[in-house]
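EI: anyone free to look at a 142-residue chain?
SC: sure, send it
EI:
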Amino acid sequence: MPRKVVGEKARMLQQVWRKALQDGRVELNFETVEAARSVRFSLYAVVKAVRSGDLVDDKLREAVDNCSVRIDGTRLRVVKDSESEELQEIAKVLGMAAEGIPELKTKEELELEESAKRVQARMMEEQAVPTRRVTPYYTRED
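SC: here you go
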């Protein structure tokens, strides 16, 4: 069972996620591999409530969804996925920036977009057709 991280330590670890999202990467150097692993486990434990939906923090949720934690010896890195070496290499092979890759949409999102387009088209049609007054007081004889 993961350790529960509370208090100032939790806020600091959550800030590491946010900073990685903002700056693209956060690197932490430790004296031992065990210390790096311990902090890695703590980083994941501190965002467990955000991942499960029990805690609502949009910025932290975005950071957790778009960043990953990596360990290289005693160095721990929290890297924004779009700036990771792997994704940059894939983007280079594809000949595009990682941000230029289209985002996949769910069936529900596509249906909502289609519905919005239909409503907008109807509104444009209604604006294009001039309304004619049928009250005799407002009509003019030519």
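EI: The mean pLDDT is 81.
SC: 👍
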